[in-house]
């Protein structure tokens, strides 16, 4: 029996988030207009709509959903057989959900209240329950002013924050005093400080399966890519295969299966992400957090999987599994394994605050895929550099490719200081 075809429209501020599969007649993209978006549109002119907001900056997802161009497109796609197309976004929020609901559109993403419950660093502990007890490092929740110094460093996380922005390492009593003076009434999640490499894995929940993608080493806090020691700036799938033992991988698989099963029970469908860290002392794998949304690395992982499939690999890409799960379609193949590949993101820092053509051109000549963003906020994405091969030699150290990328960025004329 043939599968029922359903048109899906992915609406996103950054077009790169939607490129986990090629746009086509049944998969359309609406995004804010950027130079990179215009380049992609030339390849798929009939499947991509770019909305220009002029000098007012890029439109967010909710604003794109409310734009007349988006409404005209979606109403024009309505048919008697299948009704309006389904809407997909990178991350569902109450505002996005309300914008879709106001127009009577079906939003494929899981409900925003469930995403918030799982992503919020405080409610996440309650939601995890026994899973958290089993896999999280020692942790507690306290109002900032009631935290006491016990002569050991610890990590403070606020309820919200992404790419490490809401994470603070308290090393001394003075660090704690300063934090309490600034945010005395704010509720925080406190976690034991663990030293070691961190990893991330994308996984998919369908109606009857939990599918795990490929584990990547999480490139974190490395200059000049960020000023924040806890900010994730990239992924290296090749290094993860070198650093992780079979026992490590089985530990991650167990975590993913248990978290996925809990999400599945509560009606979650599609992608989620799990971040873990391996303690240098005990060699034990600990859960860092669960990301209840499409992780940013899923797009490039899927590209690497498509390249592997051209070489004979069998299975579905991570993004294909995401789409099929959201549409309620069966997934009868596993996610494609990849052996190598990496990406790194230059974020807005004190010394690097703009897009730089003198960095893009040499990186592209060296064979890297380069995506430029139009962001100005501190720690926002500026440049994404993607490589078919690993860029890391070891935990915290670049190989020749990584050093090449770093040197190009450091010598870019736009830099204020590095």
Descriptive notes:
With 418 residues, the protein is an alpha+beta fold. The protein is globular and about 65 Å long. The relative contact order is 0.11. Strands 9, 10, 11, 12, 13, 14, 15, 16 and 17 form a nine-stranded antiparallel beta sheet that branches. The chain has a four-stranded parallel beta sheet with strand order 3-2-1-4, sandwiched between helices. α5 packs across α6. The model has no long low-confidence stretch (mean pLDDT 92). The protein has helices at residues 35-43, 61-66, 68-76, 94-102, 112-119, 121-128, 130-135, 173-182, 237-243, 246-265, 298-310, 318-326, 357-365, 400-410, and strands spanning 8-12, 27-32, 48-51, 86-89, 139-143, 154-157, 167-170, 187-192, 198-205, 210-212, 216-220, 232-236, 270-278, 285-291, 342-347, 369-372, 381-387, 392-394, 397-398. It folds into three domains: 8-109, Rossmann fold (3-Layer(aba) Sandwich), CATH 3.40.50; 138-192, Dna Ligase, domain 1; 198-410, D-amino Acid Aminotransferase, Chain A, domain 1. The chain has 14 helices and 19 strands. The termini are far apart.
Structure class: alpha+beta
Distance between the termini: 60 Å
Which homologous superfamily in CATH is the superfamily of the largest domain? ATP-grasp fold, B domain
The helix fraction, in percent, is 25-40%
How many separate helices?
A: 14
Shape: globular
User: If classified by CATH, what would the architecture of the largest domain be?
Assistant: 2-Layer Sandwich
């Amino acid at each position: 029996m043939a599968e029922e075809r359903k048109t899906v429209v992915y609406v996103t501020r950054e077009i790169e988030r939607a490129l986990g599969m090629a746009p086509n007649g049944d998969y359309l993209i609406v995004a804010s207009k950027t130079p990179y978006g215009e380049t992609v549109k030339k390849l798929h002119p009939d499947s991509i709509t770019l909305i220009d907001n002029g000098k007012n900056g890029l439109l967010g997802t909710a604003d794109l959903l409310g734009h007349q161009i988006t409404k005209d497109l979606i109403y024009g796609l309505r048919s008697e057989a299948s009704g309006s197309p389904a809407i997909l976004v990178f991350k569902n929020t109450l505002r996005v959900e309300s914008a879709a609901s106001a127009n009577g559109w079906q939003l494929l993403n899981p409900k925003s209240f469930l995403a918030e419950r799982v992503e919020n660093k405080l409610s996440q502990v309650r939601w995890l329950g026994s899973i958290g007890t089993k896999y999280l490092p020692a942790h507690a929740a306290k109002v900032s002013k009631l935290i006491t110094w016990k002569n050991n460093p610890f990590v403070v996380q606020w309820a919200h924050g992404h790419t490490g922005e809401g994470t603070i390492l308290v090393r001394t009593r003075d660090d704690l005093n300063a934090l309490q003076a600034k945010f005395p009434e704010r509720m925080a999640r406190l976690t034991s400080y663990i030293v070691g490499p961190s990893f991330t894995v994308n996984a998919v929940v369908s109606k009857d399966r939990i599918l795990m993608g490929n584990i990547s080493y999480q490139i974190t806090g490395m200059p000049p890519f960020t000023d924040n020691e806890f900010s994730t700036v990239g992924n290296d799938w090749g290094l993860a295969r070198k650093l992780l033992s079979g026992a490590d991988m089985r530990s991650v698989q167990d975590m993913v299966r248990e978290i996925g099963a809990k999400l599945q029970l509560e009606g979650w469908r599609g992608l989620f992400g799990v971040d873990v860290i391996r303690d240098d002392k005990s060699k034990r794998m600990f859960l860092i957090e669960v990301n209840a949304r499409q992780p940013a690395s899923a797009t490039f992982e899927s590209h690497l999987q498509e390249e592997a499939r051209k070489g004979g690999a069998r299975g579905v890409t991570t993004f294909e599994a995401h789409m099929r799960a959201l549409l309620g379609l069966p997934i009868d193949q596993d996610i494609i394994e990849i052996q190598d590949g990496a990406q790194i993101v230059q974020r807005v820092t004190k010394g690097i605050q703009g897009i730089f053509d003198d960095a893009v051109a040499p990186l592209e000549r060296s064979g890297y895929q380069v995506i430029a963003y139009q962001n100005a906020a501190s720690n926002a994405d500026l440049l994404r550099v993607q490589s078919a091969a690993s860029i890391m030699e070891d935990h915290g150290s670049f190989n020749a490719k990584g050093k090449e990328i770093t040197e190009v960025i450091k010598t870019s004329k736009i830099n204020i200081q590095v």
